[in-house]
Amino acid sequence: MVDGKFFDKLEAVARAVRKRDEPFGGIQLIICGDFLQLPPVCKLNEETKFCFQAKSWRKCIHINMELTEVRRQTDKTFVSLLSAVRLGRCTEEVTRLLMQTATNRSERDGILATRLCTHKDDVEITNERRLQQLSGEVHTFEALDSDPMLVKLIDAQCPVGGRVELKLGAQVMLAKNLDVSQGLVNGARGVVVGFESEEKGLPKVRFLCGVTQVIKMEKWVFKGPSGVHLSRQQLPLKLAWAISIHKSQGMSLDCVEISLSRVFESGQAYVALSRARSLAGLRVLDFDPKVVRADPSVLQFYRQLRRHQLLTQVKKNAVVAKTALCNQGLKGKREMRLRMLFWPL
To answer: Virtual CA dihedral for 230, 231, 237, 243, nearest 10 degrees?
Structure first.
C-alpha cells in the first residue's frame, strides 16, 4: 500500500542520510505485499501510483518472487473462486457461488458474523448503534499513553483506540496475538460474557475458537518523531459488529458478512471476500459482478513478472542441460581413454 511517490522519497532520504549513492543508500530491502489488494490511499484527485511505478523501483529491486501457496483457505472450490476474483474475473460459477452465500447462517455460540463495510462512517455508526441497543452498564477503559500530546499520532499507529467501551453481550475482536496455539490471534472473534468484580473490571470474552478468557491490558510501542518511542497500554479489543475492508487487511475471520454495493476501489471486493476462511463462514448480502475488478497496471506488472520468471527458468534449464551434456561428453572421453589404456594386445 506504499505510494510510488513516497517510495521515491524514502529512497532519496536513505541516500542522503547514509551519504552513499547506491540505491537506498546501500540498505538491503526485503519488500512484500500484494498489489492486487487495495491500492495506496491517495489525496483527492491524485492519480494512484503503485510503488512498482516509482522511478527508483527498478534500480532498488533486483529479484522478484511470487508466492503462490494459499494458507488461509483450504477448500479448493473457495481457493479457485478467490483466485478468479483476485484477477478481476467473475464467471457465472463465481457469481452463483457468491449469491448462494446470502442464506448462510454463520453465527454460533452467541458470536455474530462481522460485517465488512466499504466506508469508515458505516462502521462507526453500526458499532455505536449496536452497543447502545444492548441493555446493561457501559464499562469504559481509558488508554495509558506515553505522551498525551501526541495522541493523534498514537491513534494513527495503534490498532485500538484511546477509549474502549464495552457492555455484556458486546461483539468484539482481538487486536493482538495473545496465544496463537489456542487461536487467540489478531482478528479472533468473540463476545463479552462478563466483567471481573475487581476494581479494573476487566472483560471476560468467549471466543469462537472455544476459549473463554479474561482480557488484560496490553502494550504497543511505536516510533514517533526523531526516533522517539511512543507507547499505548489498552485492552486489545475493538467492537466487531462491523469493521472497514481497509482495516480487515491481513485478518482471517471465521464468520463474515459483506455488503459490496458501495465498492469503489479495484481489489476491494477481493480483500473483503478473502478474509473469510471458508464459503460456509461467508455471507454476501448484495453481490453484483461489476464490483469485481483488478487494476490493469497491476495485472500488467504480474504478467511481466511471470514472463521474466519463465525466461529465467528456461535459461537455467538450458545451462543445466548444457552442463549435463558437457559432463556426459567428458565422461565418454575418459571411458574411451581407459578402454585404449587397458585394451588387450
So the answer is: 0
Cross-sheet strand order for the sheet of 218-223: 144-145, 229-234, 218-223
Name, in order, each residue with C-beta under 8 angstroms of 295's C-beta and a sequence gap of 6 or more. Answer: 35, 36, 39, 48, 50, 266, 267
CB-CB neighbours of 97 under 10 Å: 18
Total-model pTM: 0.76
Low-confidence residues of the chain: pLDDT under 50 = 345
Over the stretch 162-215, which tens digit does the pLDDT of each residue have?
999 999 999 999 999 999 999 898 888 999 999 998 878 999 999 988 899 999
- If we measure between CA atoms, which residue out of 235, 244, 217, 114 comes closest to residue 165? 235
221: Cβ contacts below 8 Å, ≥ 6 apart: 229, 230, 231
Q: In this structure, is the dihedral angle defined by the CA atoms of residues 165, 222, 189 and 98, taken in order, positive or negative?
A: positive
CA 167 to chain centroid, in Å, comes to 29
**What's the sign of the alpha-carbon dihedral 326, 329, 333, 334?**
positive
- In angstroms, the Cα distances linking 255 to 57, 303, 332, 335 are 39, 34, 65, 68
Nearest-angstrom CA–CA distance, 115 and 107: 12
Residue 90, H or E segment: none
In the block, which residue shows the cell 542522503? 16
Residues written for the chain: 345
Q: Would you say 86 and 77 are in contact if contact means Cβ atoms under 8 Å apart?
A: no
